[in-house]
Amino acid sequence: MSTQNELWLRSLETTTPQEGFELAIKLSRMGVKSTQPDIEVLKRLRPEYANDAGSLTAA
């Protein structure tokens, strides 16, 4: 698990479109992790917002 001070993103540059796509997924996951760092809370609350586009957009 990353800490806030850990450098995990060294560059946004990628050499292939596939690497760019994988980086986009990583950025998305890290955004979720930053929004809700407690995995147990994330799992518990997910059913409440998983099918609500407004809630997902707000996050």
Automatic annotation (TrEMBL):
It holds the Pfam family HTHP. It comes from the Bacteria. This is Uncharacterized protein. It comes from Tenacibaculum platacis.
